[in-house]
Amino acid sequence: xxxxxxxxxxxxxxxxxxxxxxxxxxxVSAEPLERLADRLQQGIEEYRNIKMAVLEFPxxxxxxxxxxxxxxxxxxxxxxxxxxxxxxxxxxxxxxAGELKLQASGAMDEASTQKMxxxxxxxxxxxxxxxxLNDKEVEVNARVLLIQTAKIVSAEKITIQKTWKDPQASFSxxxxxxxxxxxxxxxxxxxxxxxxxxKSGRIQRTYSSDKAVIAVEIAGKTGELLKRTxxxxxxxxxxxxxxxxxxxxxxxxxxxxxxxxxxxFPNGILQNEAYYAEGKLDGAVKIYNESGKLLFExxxxxxxxxxxxxxxxxxxxxxxxxxxxxxxxxxLPDDNASAKSIMVKPIKLARGEEFVFYADKKYLCKxxxxxxxxxxxxxxxxxxxxxxAYSKEGKLEKEFIFAGxxxxxxxxxxxxGNVVSEKEYASKN
Length: 429
Prior knowledge:
Radius of gyration: 23 Å
Number of strands: 28
Number of helices: 6
Helix content: 10-25%
CATH topology of the largest domain: Outer Surface Protein A, domain 3
């Protein structure tokens, strides 16, 4: 069944706007970073079709700043222009970093960097650090590291103009991952807010603590921040209906959304859920009906639609789907040789289970496990990356991560989408 474009676009607008404004990074001086990217790429010219992960560039003193993510994003864009380099998707990068309880940062030690690279299926990583020279200039030190040998094959440094503002640090030096920042918050210290939607499309949020207003912010029609009276404390925030029932809960760090964001119907049923990274939607955004049935799902990357938009029927099966790339409608992955989806077919056995993996309906590989999910045998070439197995109702059941043609980890989910079991595998299985 096909879904009309106008209906898709209408739902997408709701998906984008329900969770609030999107943080917009300041641009970085392009010319110096372009020179840096060119020099680094010259150092890896002999490595054709190399698969690479671009990590964040943390400050050498561990201070918190938007700079590391901005430099990473700009260099990712520049390296993506080289057709002989295949870049690891940011979502996979963040996911694997989360699996290892690491930050996707160049500050990781050599062993952690290599382990992360292997799980990503990367052959090399672009990593580095930032160092303030003065209030206006930043020194960028960058290097390309081969995963297999830990050999540095290309290294450069350059000075760029600092075009971002550093927020006051709320956490200890070196704490930069979302999970680490959230873990430092005081769960007993909570703030409330109230949202008012005007006919003009603008949104006003009033934040309070012990009934005293601490800040007011105004957002535009598309969620962009227009005004805020003062910075907000890093903490958990909740919004309530008139009868005291929980309506929304979110986390703010440096006045931006971080981590899970959820809204609820007056009856307490989950209405929307999303995940934020540095104030931007990142991952799946889901919308449910008042009975708790999933209606719509859209994957976001860096604040814009990037991936499948799916509509579900009352049985939980996919009713229709549209594919987005960088915020625009695009051909489905099956029609795009560079973005083929991997399908998993589970087969029950007397003493375990067999999983067969396909891409574009072509057999790739298969693994056999026992009842404790120990790998008994494998055949074929399993693709590096993530493969997911779904039930007939379209619910995620198992998630595999492959590296070096072998499965490196497996997650098992229950019917509510929670992880009930997780298994790590040796590099050879």
